Amino acid sequence: xxxxxxxxxxxxxxxxxxxxxxxxxxxxxxxxxxxxxxxxxxxxxxxxxxxxxxxxxxxxxxxxxxxxxxxxxxxxxxxxxxxxxxxxxxxxxxxxxxxxxxxxxxxxxxxxxxxxxxxxxxxxxxxxxxxxxxxxxxxxxxxxxxxxxxxxxxxxxxxxxxxxxxxxxxxxxxx
Length: 175
Fold this sequence. Notes:
The protein has five helices and ten strands; from the N terminus they run H-H-E-E-E-E-H-E-H-E-E-E-E-H-E.
């Protein structure tokens, strides 16, 4: 009888630990990534800050995928930041004028009057995103951000997480 109770208690403890590890697997993976790599990753010669609680789920020399892992940070959706590289045809900084006009026209053609245009500066480059309230009641925001450097960005998350995205982009610098 005593062995049965000990075995049952051991199984309960193991099940509880397994559940905890499974429920916190992304946070554990983020901590492990930060222990191994520090707080930054390199993409196309640029150093990108990886905030605490964010996990690098995919990384190559030309792109990076970050995902928020804290429950309070993402609400119903995990915030995601994609950093990708598009090689320009020349060594001159990319001109964003045409892209800016195209994005604004696209939003205006869909009846949007309130268009938010923001620029972020990082290491001598400028990043630009343009957004309109396409879905005012939506909980998820998707932003495409072009820059004068080879880097481009996509943000997927809640509006409240936008400052975190802007901080990541603004903190980028040449390696």
